[in-house]
Amino acid sequence: MTKPLEGLKVIDLTSALSGPFCTMMLADYGAEVIKIEPLAGDQTRDWGPMEEKSGDSAYFAAFNRDKKGVTLNLKSDKGRELFYQIVKDADILVENYKVGVTKKLKIDYDTVKEINPEIIYASGTGFGQYGPIAHRPCYDVVAQAMGGIMNLTGYPDQPPVKVGPSIVDHVMGIYLTVGVLIALHHKDVTGQGQFVDVAMLDSIFSVLENATINYTVGHTIPQRQGNIDPSITPFDAYECKDGMVALGVGNNRLFEKFCNKTGLTHLLDDPRYSDNWQRTLHYIPELRDTIRDWCKQYTKKEIEDMMDDAGVPCGPVLNIKEAIEHPQIKAREMMVHCQHPTMGDIEIQGCVMKLSETPGSVDQPAPLLGQHNQEVFGISEAEEDELIKEGVLSSYRTED
User: Fold this and answer.
1) Share of the chain above pLDDT 90, in %
2) Of 169, 197, 202, 236, which residue is the catalytic one?
3) Closest Cα to residue 221, out of 211, 231, 207?
4) Angle at CA 346, nearest 5°, toward 341 and 352?
5) What tens digit of pLDDT does each residue of 338-377 get?
6) Which residues, 6 or more positions from 216, have their beta carbon under 8 angstroms from its beta carbon?
7) Catalytic annotation on 77?
8) CA distance linking residue 117 with residue 29, whole number of Å
9) Model pTM?
10) pLDDT, position 399
11) Of 64, 191, 203, 318, which is most buried, counting CB atoms within 10 Å of its CB?
């Protein structure tokens, strides 16, 4: 079956997570992605967990599947010449170097567009291409801190907490992908390439949702509230007999259904809970305590079943094992098996976007270091070995 991005050639100069997450999505949906690594490899080849027998990084394997892998010393003249050779007929280039690095390496947008005027050149950086701190390096935890989300995460009586997974990297990776596809459509219409500038800080700032308008319109600085939503009530996680459940009672109609199903119908006659905003203003302590007391009488499954019957959004709080094994996750193929050349059978996350006619899929494992040097650069094994001796390439074949 044809994939929607087949025929597109993507040069992947990214490392860590945000950039590789973008190019992974492009690869899953059919683009030919050529991942260029430094001679020592992407930094995530050293990020755990390491598969026990091979010692290889499962982290790298998870986010670099479906890509071809080459190595290049871009500080060398021969390395740059090989790069210029493969960028000539590329459609897209994605990089996430610190601002200024590509110019020093002579692989920046101005240089590349002289070689390929129609190239879509996407850059993901910590703080974007301009602004007073654009020059700084960045990782997810720093962007979470500066973007406001860390100060909103956790409980009021505890210090700020980062969101568990690297949420900034994922959101930025998605924005990079969207930016590339928008630019690709523009190119299809006009034939014109362009530069796509996406920042980690901008990306996480964009998801602050009601926090920004609570400040600009409500004139308050939102603080940590645990699992409580500042705009919707009840919208919280509650302890029950065997764990916790999350309830999202997002409007008046759902609140009526919730009260009727739980037997808490007296809440419908209380003016403090007459609409969503009143419930939000008066959630603590009485309404929260009432719902807490009700939940403690039942198991997660009992509450889930009751809310399902009533049509009220509800779900158990699951650990990773439970989430992976949930029938819905399985039905949606959100975990898939991949045969890796050194790790063997590994299970990794599948494709999120389900397209009826041109679905994506995980078809190939992440490449070994320099695995596709000969194919991509059109060189023989002997020529590759010579370039390795000269410090231009590296390969898993010659590792000790």
Assistant:
1) 98
2) 169
3) 211
4) 115
5) 999 999 999 999 999 999 999 999 999 999 999 999 999 9
6) none
7) no
8) 25
9) 0.95
10) 75
11) 64
